[in-house]
Amino acid sequence: MKKLISLFLIICIISTLFTTMPVLAKDMTDYMVYTIEEGEVTIEYVNDDFNDYFNGTIYIPSEIEGYPVTQIREEAFYGCDINFLTIPDTVRVIGYAAFMDCDIRELDLGNGVEEIHMEAFAGNRRLQEVTIPMSVTYLEGAAFDYCERLENIHVEEGNENYKSIDGVLYTSDMWSLMKFPENKRAEVFRVPDEVYYIGSTAFLNCHGLEGIETKADSTEYKAVDGVLFDTDMYTLKFYPAGKKDIYYNIPDSVHTIEYNAFYNNDYLTKIDLGSNLEHINADAFYSCDSLGFVEIPDTVWHLGERAFANCQSLVYAKIGNQVESIGRRAFAYCERLIHLELSEGTNDIGADTFSNCYSLESIVIPQSITEIWDETFHRDYLITDIYYRGTEEQWQDVYIDEYKEIMAKSGDSF
């Protein structure tokens, strides 16, 4: 009996020792792929198990194998689960999309950082403040795109290349307005008179901005009713995401709607595209969630990628007869789109163009269409009526890739 009790006690003691022994911390570098060249370390990327062991607060190591970490390569930490991030003073270069979509809330950039490339910290939707170190000599304005809670961008005193005024980022000479924080509130923002150039995503997704003003004699820009154009009003540059009007009539002088021009405006329910419009560039009306109807006039011949994608209230779309080619995903994820009408003249529909339009029921297809490509109507399971402008014999000759089952169950009309 004593032997059994002694054995039991030994087992209990051993069990207690194992349960109370500290677990050795994982070495972050074991989950990184890095290169060492000329005595310096570049972090290339992290492997698939990184998030299982490292998330929340992350301190990028200042050295690996005794060598300084000086570069973080493009997309190295893309999509990692990071809340608080510290970059050491040894790092000089942060590459394209290096920390994109990481959910960063607080960011501490080391005093040795010199280059911050495009979309390096884009998509960190909880980031509210950021300070650019004095050491930075190259910074892309798009580095902080899609940071929808960002209120202020500060620049450390002594930086010779960039400056911040009221949280807005400029080049130090005020030649360029680089970034207006997306969550900065302003009924009207007046572009400083010294500014000659406005970055292509400077006002992207600024849902707290209701209007823009410029000086009257600007040689580059003109603002009318809070909307930004080039001086001759040939190109519509920015329509503020926070502008609360429900209807807008694009001036007849406008021939081009710029990339991202109406991006994420939640107020517009109807828009008149004018009588001379020719170009609707990529993402022009992306995620305009109140827009219900769109008729693209016959003057338009270029319709860019994702031009009307993710417009959640869009139920009707008609595309004019000069649009020969429709950009990829131009109407993807318009989940309430019911009726779609293509006009004679369209002959090329990009991949995924109308994918994930879950409510789409009826389509008008012109005779000019000869091919319907890969995943054009992906997941559009409710299509019941296809109206084809040609003959039944011509319809049989149309090449339909992958979605024959959807087309076959539809009620074709000729």
Structure description:
The protein is mostly beta strands and 414 residues long. It is built from 4 helices and 36 strands. The chain has helices spanning 2-20, 50-53, 392-397, 404-409; strands at 32-37, 40-46, 56-59, 63-64, 67-72, 82-86, 93-94, 106-108, 115-116, 129-132, 138-139, 152-155, 162-165, 168-171, 176-179, 189-190, 197-198, 212-213, 221-224, 227-230, 235-238, 247-249, 256-257, 270-272, 279-280, 293-296, 302-303, 316-319, 325-326, 339-342, 348-349, 362-365, 371-372, 385-388, 399-400, 411-413. The strands form 9 sheets. The protein has an 8-stranded mixed sheet, with no helix packed on it. Strands 1, 2, 4, 5, 7, 9 and 11 form a 7-stranded mixed sheet that branches. It has a 6-stranded parallel sheet with strand order 26-28-30-32-34-36. Strand 14 (168-171) and strand 15 form a beta hairpin. It is globular and about 75 Å long.
In terms of structural class, how would the helical and strand content be classed? mainly beta
Low-pLDDT regions: 1-5, 13-25
* Main sheet record: 8 strands, mixed
- What integer value in Å does the Rg equal? 27 Å
Q: So how many helices? A: 4
Measured as a percent range, the helix fraction is: under 10%
Write out the strand line-up for the largest beta sheet, numbering strands in chain order.
Answer: 19-20-21-23-25-27-29-31
Strand content is 25-35%
State the separation between the terminal residues, measured CA to CA: 95 Å
Return the average pLDDT rounded to an integer: 89
User: What is the number of E strands?
Assistant: 36
